[in-house]
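Why does residue order matter? Because the sequence determines the fold. Keep that principle in mind as you read this record.
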Amino acid sequence: MSGFDYDLFVIGAGSGGVRAARISASHGARVAIAEEHRVGGTCVIRGCVPKKMLVYGSMFAEELSHAENYGWTIEGKSFDWAKLRDFVNADVDRLEGLYGKTLASHEVELFAERATITGPNSVKLASGREITAAHILIAVGGWPAMPAFSGVEHCISSNEVFHLETQPKSLMVVGGGYIAMEFAGVFNALGSEVTVINRSDCVLRGYDEQVVERMLHIAMGRGIVFRMNSEVASVEKQDDGSLLVDLGGTEKVKVDQVLVATGRSAKTAGLGLECVGIELGKGGAIPVDEYSRTNCPSIYAVGDVTDRVQLTPVAIREGHAFADTVFGKNPRTVDYENIPSAVFCQPPLAGVGLTEQEAKETHGKVKTYVAEFRPMKNLYSPHAERGLYKMVVDEVTEKILGIHMIGPEAPEILQIAAVALKAGLTKQAFDETVALHPSMAEELVLLK
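Structure:
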């Protein structure tokens, strides 16, 4: 690989890019990485990590309401949005520093500027410097997709929500995906009036319909208003700073803030891919083979910028597999079957494997086992909410095809249940497992 400035040049220092850079360097490669925003990418800087911290912060509202029934007297309780916001952002700063130290400790050179591709083995930095590399890895991730309605510039995306000066008294969330549901839950719990606008009658596509229906029932019981089959026609900023949202026809709604969460697109615009003959797919995504290689042999891509699964743990595995394949003399691919996922609404929901509908379409006859229960910790809650656990199995073999749940700590419980699904276990393995009582998780081994 002599003759090149580096063995590997990574564009994008998010979860996938950093893992690929670190592992490649550990294999002896000379590595550089460029990041035009902040080291850590979507997950650490403006995604899963700060969002989960907001979820934790907002959950205290519910926990404090339970506390009095358990003998606690809490006087003068109040909430300070700025304090939570600053605490979350301070921890993001801390994590960004750790990511930077990880790169430095592996002697990966970091360029804090934008890089674009100029050829199969060359990139150009925003400063004008041109660099050559034997291999180029694109790991720039995704970016919020903003719809083209009049006044969209007055709205915020999930990028800006972590930096709001004040908590909105009224918030309109546009979208029906996991980002929309999570932020709707956060601000509803913190006391904001939340309205969700969705252009269809379905939210959280890809999750089990019965679990999603339970989520909607609980969310509406907590005060979130859902406007299905609705779209924003325009947004007009008022003199007092509020926003007047036109939902079509004569109906207009006045809110303090509009959060657009209608999806994310691969951040490939202006990256220079056309100069190496890489044609983009849907949403600007980069098509790659099972080894993350594009149609240009020296250029690879991992993470949300590709046309595969957009999840942080997946990007990390893709980055690691790339490094082992190219520099570790150990060709590896990533298994995309039975990947668990969660939505941190309140309470959260999670799933792994096939939904009931998907199982019927692919396996024909299936059986479902469902447990509905009121979590013990919510016994004195003003919300009579019931959790729901669901197992989908093949009717003949009883091999587990999918597990889906909603309730407190559902993602924590599902993670270990996903191991059973990955191992190809049958429901009998759950039936033969002694219940851990009293717990919510025991419902999984008591399904009838």
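The chain has a mean pLDDT of 95.
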